[in-house]
Amino acid sequence: MVFDGIDEKLASWLGAQPMFFVATAPLAGDGLVNCSPKGLLETFAVLTERRVAYLDLTGSGIETVAHLRENGRIVLMFCAFEGRPRIVRLHGRGEVVLPSDPGFGDLVTRFSDHPGTRAIVTVDVDRVSDSCGFAVPRLAYVEDRDLLDLSAVKKGPAKMAAYREERNATSLDGLPGLPC
């Protein structure tokens, strides 16, 4: 089913999912398609019926950011692992909002606080759809892992900046990632 937008009921369901997936691809036909799991409570927000955002935390790669900077194409996929089966996809155009960008300060208040925050990804949603999810297994959510936050705290700001410069400057295909 295709929806006109994200209503309150769907927004509530999306916000209750402890995990979602983000997929992007470069323009080059031989480039690597990327699919990344995202999680941690309160790191996803529905901004309007056609706009969502999620907190981008420092990780070992920069594929999503690099692909968005090149072409903007993105899809977010949410799966119900508990309760009634359901898959929801949000197709759209994404933009990377860095801490130095105007508007970052207002956006970041929509999310839980994490020391490894490197950006916020906003998505202007073109298509909202769901499907059955009958083959998605039932899994029980236990709790968020705290390892990413602990790693960022242990590194501290200077080592985090060095880590991003080393690991987040370019994608696997050589596309520009974060400005260093």
Please give a structural write-up.
The protein has 180 residues and is of the alpha+beta class. It has one domain (2-167): Electron Transport, Fmn-binding Protein, Chain A (Pnp Oxidase, Chain A, Roll), CATH 2.30.110. Helix content is 24%, strand content 33%. The chain has 4 helices and 8 strands. It has helices at 8-16, 63-70, 104-108, 147-167; strands at residues 2-3, 19-24, 34-39, 44-48, 51-57, 73-79, 87-97, 117-131. Strands 1, 2, 3, 4, 5, 6, 7 and 8 form an 8-stranded antiparallel sheet that branches. The longest helix has 21 residues, at 147-167. It is globular, with a radius of gyration of 16 Å.
Give the gist of this structure.
The protein is an alpha+beta fold and 180 residues long. It has 4 helices and 8 strands, in the order βαββββαββαβα. The protein is globular, with a radius of gyration of 16 Å.
Any key phrases for this structure?
alpha+beta; eight-stranded antiparallel sheet; Pnp Oxidase, Chain A; 4 helices
User: Considering the protein shown, what is the CATH homologous superfamily?
Assistant: Electron Transport, Fmn-binding Protein, Chain A
Strand content: 25-35%
Number of helices, counting only DSSP H or I runs of 4 residues or more:
4
Structural class: alpha+beta
